[in-house]
Amino acid sequence: MPSHLPAVTQPVPTAPSGPRHDTTALLRGATASTYADTVRAVSDDIAARLTSVTQPFSGASRSELQGLVDAVDLDGPPSGTREALREAADLYAQHAIWFHEPTYAAHLNCPVALPAVGAETMLAAINTSVDTYDQSTVATLMERRLVEWTAGRIGFALDGDLPDGGRPGGADGIFTSGGTQSNFQALFLARERARRDGVRLESMRILATGASHFSVAKSALLLGLPRDAVVEVGTDAEGRMSPDALGQTLVDIERTGDTVVAVVATAGTTDRGRIDPLVPIADLCDAVGTWLHVDAAYGCGLLVSPTRRHLLDGIERARSVTVDFHKSFFQPVSSSALIVRERPDLAPVTWHADYLNPAENAELNQVDKSLQTTRRFDALKLWVTLRALGADGVGALVDAVCDLAAAVHQDLAGDADLRLVGGTDLSTVLFRYEPDGLDPERADALVPQVRRVLFDSGRALVAKTVIDGRPCLKLTLLNPDATLADIRGVLELVRSAAHGLLAGEALADTDEPPCRDVHPRLARGEGEAR
User: Fold this and answer.
1) What's the angle, vertex CA 280, arms to CA 276 and CA 285, rounded to 5?
2) Nearest to 53 by CA among 493, 459, 453
3) What angle do CA 286, 287, 293 make, to 5 degrees?
4) What pTM did the predictor assign?
5) Adjacency order of strands within the sheet including 461-467
6) What is the DSSP letter of 267?
């Protein structure tokens, strides 16, 4: 759709004398009314698109999009704010992926809470950096309060003494850019603890399942650990970490003389949405004295679920926890945090600079526990969301997507064409197009082909992955407003694409053209809305 941003009615201001720069370019008191008009025009345009969009993607090809991008002369003459924004809307917004559309079911992307979008407008304009107190003041206090709130939801004590009677204990944490950064920082802290205990880098090992997030292995590499430092722990038939396998692996590594510096349990695996058994894992970690990190990037929404909080029982025994609010708390990217059970564990991150956070300064400088220096006040979005909807309100949204996934699983249980691949604890659905009589290898080949057909049409987006050596399609349901009918529609598109692909193969092998049963980019029927 064309942009709804109004056309430029005034020429771009120039300054023939006096300042040599455009004095209307920056947000300040003198440009406040222009700011309000600009934001209003952009929000009106996006609102119009939200009400008219009928599919999650335009369906434009990569070559078409590359041509549009290349056609923009970034060194050309200035066009003014309104025209530049209108051009950007026609380029970006027109061809963006819309996560609010119920036929978007690919990755861990969610529609965003309205209060958070309003907060995003506020924090972008004020542009606070929460690295030091003198740049942020109340923003630092609000973020620290949210860290405490999250730690309390996990079950960490907020105050107390350390077991050795040393420095004050209690939980702490820091907002991060996402789960990858949170996992990296957690493993860095575990590594530093082991180094203080005299463990050599080359003998450090991290235990995780094959379903753990790729950032675990990547973090080990970036932390200078050996390439074989991440040791895979066996799972049960549903993809959860096996406590028996973990116990055996801990024994096996001790016998080699290496040291397990961390065990990574996952509360919400990316593909299956499974939650590792946290209580028995914590028992084993406590028994051998190793760091337990729980990656709850996906499953953290259960912290506020009115009906499913028990699935995270044992998370309070972790040494560190990753939470991604921009997944199951419905926050705009980015909004994540690393929460630690004991405040002193964050100390290895601290680095003092005279111009920023001198050691003798007693101010609350968040940079002392962050891997980032300049950092947005992303916590404001969660703050406003909690105040607007309440924790139970957010939890009800989490329950809605989990309930939808359960309904889809039940719907597919006896399907003649679509075969379920395991269950879930959260909101994923793994399946294959594999009717009776279809060769499994041909079913394998259909997985990327079906996904591509749907993507190219723009009408629905699903993901693909590999489970137990077999490719399969994946729905990641994070839209609380999507209905079972919406998802049935997506599955019908999958079915139609598979039928069309198989019919096309049959057509190539025979002179008798069969009924195609759709496909060709899932063209809509003559009377169907476009």
Assistant:
1) 100
2) 459
3) 35
4) 0.91
5) 104-105, 461-467, 470-476, 428-433, 418-420
6) B
